[in-house]
């Protein structure tokens, strides 16, 4: 599958006249709890030639594709990417720390991760994860629950808790987050992961009161501690210089 993904990225480069700088897996396959029918969520960063950025007019800054073999691709232009990095955009930070990398310009990736460390805003990122957890809470409180809803809520709830306790960006790999949950929750989650690995996305699981209660408690904990978090450094000058350097290459 990796070769298919690389071929698709090469096709994007040729047809869109761009250079792909970085490409990773996002979503459940990167987080570590994919179902057999999960898509491949490919996320990439690309740049145009210098002249593209000299126009008076706004131009498209996203490239998307979907293939018949379940490749769901979405890429961001370099300028868009760096503006989002300045805001400590959580999905972008997850791309930069994804455990599944399909392609990277090593110099670019190293510099991006260094900038990301300085741009990281604990409070902004926590609020992103809090919002995502809450979006799935209603589904998690139903009598029958899609396991996808449980895992999306658990991942973001634990990511928020990690930020509060460690003041750092949380691991993308869910199994590296799980140890901060109580032992009984860890055991139940591993049991549910085994079920999810053998069921399609539409499988409905009986409500697990233990998981739902833990999610409610963790949302409350994250809300109560949010105000004590700091924000990232103002990096506009450094990001601008990095952008200028890259588009001249």
TrEMBL record:
Pfam families named among the record's database cross-references: RlaP (PF10127)
Q: Name the InterPro entries on file.
A: NT_sf (IPR043519), RlaP (IPR018775)
Extract the coiled-coil ranges from the record: none
Which PANTHER family would you find in this protein's record? NUCLEOTIDYLTRANSFERASE
* Protein name stated in the entry: Nucleotidyltransferase
């Amino acid at each position: 599958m990796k070769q298919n993904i690389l071929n698709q990225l090469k096709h994007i480069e040729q047809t869109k006249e761009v250079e792909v700088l970085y490409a990773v897996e996002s979503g459940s396959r990167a987080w570590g709890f994919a179902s057999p029918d999960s898509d491949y969520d490919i996320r990439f960063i690309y740049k145009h030639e210098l002249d593209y950025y000299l126009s008076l007019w706004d131009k498209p800054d996203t490239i998307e594709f979907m293939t018949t073999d379940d490749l769901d691709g979405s890429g961001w232009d370099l300028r868009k990417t760096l503006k989002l990095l300045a805001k400590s955009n959580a999905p972008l930070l997850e791309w930069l720390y994804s455990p599944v990398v399909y392609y990277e310009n090593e110099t670019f990736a190293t510099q991006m991760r260094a900038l990301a460390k300085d741009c990281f805003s604990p409070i902004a990122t926590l609020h992103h994860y809090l919002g995502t957890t809450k979006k799935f809470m209603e589904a998690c409180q139903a009598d029958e629950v899609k396991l996808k809803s449980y895992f999306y809520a658990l991942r973001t709830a634990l990511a928020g808790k990690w930020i509060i306790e460690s003041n750092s960006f949380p691991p993308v790999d869910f199994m590296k987050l799980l140890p901060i949950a109580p032992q009984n929750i860890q055991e139940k989650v591993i049991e549910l992961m085994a079920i999810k690995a053998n069921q399609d996305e539409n499988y409905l699981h009986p409500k697990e009161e233990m998981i739902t209660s833990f999610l409610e408690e963790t949302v409350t904990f994250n809300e109560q501690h949010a105000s004590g978090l700091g924000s990232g450094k103002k990096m506009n000058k450094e990001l601008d210089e990095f952008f200028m350097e890259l588009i001249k290459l």
